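hi! just following up on the protien thing from before. the input was this:
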Amino acid sequence: MSDALNSESVYRSESQAGIQAAAIAKALDPVRWSPGDLATVSGPKEWSTHLVDLESQLAAPRRARGTVQVHSADSFVAVCGRLVDEEGPDAVGLYADETANKLVAVLNDDIASAPGWRDHRVELVLRHTPEWEHWHRNQGLKSQQDFAETIEAGLTEIHEPAAATMLTIAETFEAKVDVNFAQGADMGRGRRQLTFNEKVTAKAGEGGALEIPEKMVLGLRPFIGGDAYKVEAKIKFRLREGKLAIGYVLDRPHETLRDAFLNDTQKVAAALQVALLQGVAPGAVTPHATATAIR
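and the predicted 3d structure came back as:
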């Protein structure tokens, strides 16, 4: 009698497990899940049913996912264009993160009618050009030789004054200080104030024929594949204890970078016809753990 009851109990356990497994499979997206995508495996000892995902055995994934990373706006549009057409522009979130110089297209973002997995992405990570890095890195006062080498390495980016003239200035720059002392007013108790006027003169070229400009005008492309901008560099020099230090400082480079980033991202948004959102893209959705045993 007990054996019969035990057999009946086992049968019911297996049947209930199969019913529950079928219910779970049915609850999954019926459009994307075909009967061959799920299998139920019963353990002979525990009499439990395990769900096994067979996607790895399919000829192709059920849906697109993963991240593609590119480094130019043109490449970003080329990759995203066909994918946006497949998903539909309403399902695409386009996020511009200015701090990271990054643009992210989430191709299966949340939409009004349903949430999305947010795990199919294209990322545009803008990279600085070597020319921008050269002029940005070498700012500040340096020795005359270092300054001349910086100018020589970046001649093609110098627009004003003429590149050859600027190189001559860098190589022949001279400065001297003239100090004139004068006796000032009586400060009482036999003390007198000594005043002096310091005049710094600078010249360059053969015989000092070249005028020292206050600034250079550079033509720089901040990001690879982006537009070029005119950037002013103010020339600075200092004479201390007979030693000359000379260099330059870029005029508000952060504004140039911001304008270049916004220009590139707005061009992408217009090409894809997708609204541009300023901010960090949300993370992908993490699925809840699937039950491995059903009793």
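The two ends are 24 Å apart (CA to CA).
The chain is about 30% helix and 30% strand.
cheers
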